[in-house]
Write a structure and sequence with these properties.
five-stranded parallel β-sheet, oxidoreductase activity, Rossmann fold, about 35% helix, about 210 residues, flavoprotein, binds flavin mononucleotide, alpha/beta, globular, single chain
Length: about 210
């Protein structure tokens, strides 16, 4: 399977990217193909008013490497890892812009929108997030936003790994060991049961197969 991490911190030797790399290492340990993109290298402009920005054939008029990233790596991946620092109790701007600009390719003004919607659906999805504050509520808004995005895109939301860190590399010293958690998350990216039970869901009563470690 192809696992793509989108790292949104402008600090490329920072904590959230390190967590994402650990998720990828875990995925690679199970034979998956891994890749990481720094959004700051690709996404150079925010969403504009599509009515005035679209080209005459309906394609997106913003001239950067976003479309290449989207049509290639993002649409082709089987799992997305979104890595973000907590910025002002939300996700980093680069990541928000990446998400906002999905609109240009999924709204009906774009000639390929139906195909793109198909290609963006049904992936495995995980989040690697770092914040200075350890207060649990600090990351709730950012996490909820990404969870709702995953639901909307019909993804399987596998999990969130959260590190408490500020200076570069400090996430490795977080006593909660988020780097290990990230590795484990990557390793189980495609096997974990992601449940979204309803009251009338059929359930066997057993979550993990007997004999599982
Ligand atoms: C612009 C900015 C806003 C931030 N806002 C918050 C915040 O609201 N809460 C928090 O706990 N940490 C906040 N931080 C700290 C970062 O989330 C923290 O240092 C994180 O580990 C940085 O990740 P990085 O090394 O991947 O860039 C902020 C940092 C910056 C630069």
């Amino acid at each position: 399977m192809r696992v793509l991490a989108l790292s949104s911190s402008p600090r490329k030797d920072g904590n959230s990217r390190m967590l994402a790399e650990a998720v990828l290492s875990g995925a690679a340990s199970n034979g998956h193909q891994i890749d990481l993109v720094d959004l700051a290298d690709v996404v150079r402009a925010p969403l504009r008013d599509c009515r005035t920005c679209r080209l005459s054939d309906g394609r997106c008029g913003i001239d950067d490497e976003y479309e290449e990233l989207l049509r290639g790596k993002v649409a082709d991946a089987d799992a997305w890892i979104f890595a973000t620092p907590l910025y002002w109790y939300g996700i980093a701007g680069q990541l928000k812009i990446f998400i906002d600009r999905l609109f240009c390719y999924t709204s009906s003004g774009n000639p390929d929108f139906a195909d793109m919607i198909d290609r963006l659906k049904g992936k495995r999805f995980a989040v690697a997030l770092t914040a200075e504050e350890s207060y649990p509520g600090a990351v709730v808004g950012a996490t909820a936003q990404l969870q709702e995005l995953a639901r909307y895109l019909r993804h399987e939301f596998v999990g969130v790994v959260r590190g408490v860190a500020n200076s570069r590399g400090e996430v490795q010293r977080d006593p909660a060991k988020p780097m290990d958690q990230a590795y484990a998350l990557g390793a189980r990216l495609f096997d974990g049961i992601v449940s979204d039970y309803r009251v009338d869901s059929e359930r066997s009563g057993v979550i993990w197969p007997t004999g599982a470690a």
